[in-house]
Amino acid sequence: MAIKRTILIVCTIASLSLVSSAQTCKNYKFSNQRDFQSCADLPVLEAYLHWNYNSTAETIHIAYRASQTPRGWIAWGINPTGSGMVGTQALVAFQDLKGNMKAYTSQIKSYNPSMKPEPLSFPVSELSAEYSNDEMIISALLGPLSNGTTFNIAWQAGNAVSNDIPQSHPHFGPYVRSSGTLNFLSV
Ligand SMILES: *[C@@H]1O[C@H](CO)[C@@H](O)[C@H](O)[C@H]1NC(C)=O
Ligand SMILES: *[C@@H]1O[C@H](CO)[C@@H](O)[C@H](O)[C@H]1NC(C)=O
């Protein structure tokens, strides 16, 4: 009896420490009863993508969340024409001068992009941003997306926003490894 109880306690502690040392997207609960069936722990920048893919409509409802201070900005996007940063059709979020979270779309056309608001090469609706638990979260409905279910994606974070314009991000380590490929049919 005593041994069994000890084993149980050890197992409970082991699983708790796993949860606290490695946060995974699967354990995350959104506010407002939003529910996403699929998610991915992105490898750098403490970033997570949650999504529902609708194969009939070829649309993806996404929530991208990443660790950030209220002064910084985050961005996530699909690159339909290449890999890495240039060409990315980005969703961007930051806290504006009035203190409200703001989300918009911008095309990353060079390594020194304007970051100005503009439409993307595919439809985007239901765009919103929030700040919760030291994370910025961007939500949106993307599509119809006509090129299958596997896309090159890129994401980024920067420390500063000036006059409501996100400023250049650092250029080392995780900030230059923040791109990859994602199949929206994967779990
Ligand atoms: C997927 O999209 C179709 C067409 O717009 C819609 O009828 C259907 O309800 C959607 N499915 C889900 C699960 O949202
Ligand atoms: C699909 O491919 C076309 C042509 O390359 C491109 O313009 C468009 O942005 C792509 N859409 C997506 C969602 O990747």
Structural class: mainly beta
N-to-C SSE series?
A: HEEEEEEEEEEEE
The ligands bound in this entry are: 2-acetamido-2-deoxy-beta-D-glucopyranose
Let me know the average pLDDT.
Answer: 89
Q: Quick one: CATH superfamily?
A: Cellobiose dehydrogenase, cytochrome domain
The CATH architecture comes to Sandwich
What does this protein look like?
The structure is a single chain. This protein is mainly beta and 187 residues long. It is built from one helix and twelve strands, in the order H-E-E-E-E-E-E-E-E-E-E-E-E. The chain has a single domain (25-183), classed as Immunoglobulin-like (Sandwich), CATH 2.60.40. The strands form three sheets. The protein has a five-stranded antiparallel beta sheet with strand order 1-2-3-8-7, with no helix packed on it. The chain binds 2-acetamido-2-deoxy-beta-D-glucopyranose (NAG) (2 copies). One 2-acetamido-2-deoxy-beta-D-glucopyranose binds next to loops. One 2-acetamido-2-deoxy-beta-D-glucopyranose (NAG) binds next to loops.
Short note summarizing the structure:
The protein has 187 residues and is mostly beta strands. It has one helix and twelve strands; from the N terminus they run αββββββββββββ. The chain has one helix spanning 2-21; strands at 38-41, 47-54, 59-67, 73-79, 89-95, 101-107, 124-132, 135-142, 150-158, 161-162, 165-166, 179-183.
Write the layout of secondary structure elements.
Elements: H1 2-21, E1 38-41, E2 47-54, E3 59-67, E4 73-79, E5 89-95, E6 101-107, E7 124-132, E8 135-142, E9 150-158, E10 161-162, E11 165-166, E12 179-183
Antiparallel strand pairs: 1-2, 2-3, 3-8, 4-5, 4-9, 5-6, 7-8, 9-12, 10-11
Bound molecules: 2-acetamido-2-deoxy-beta-D-glucopyranose (2 copies).
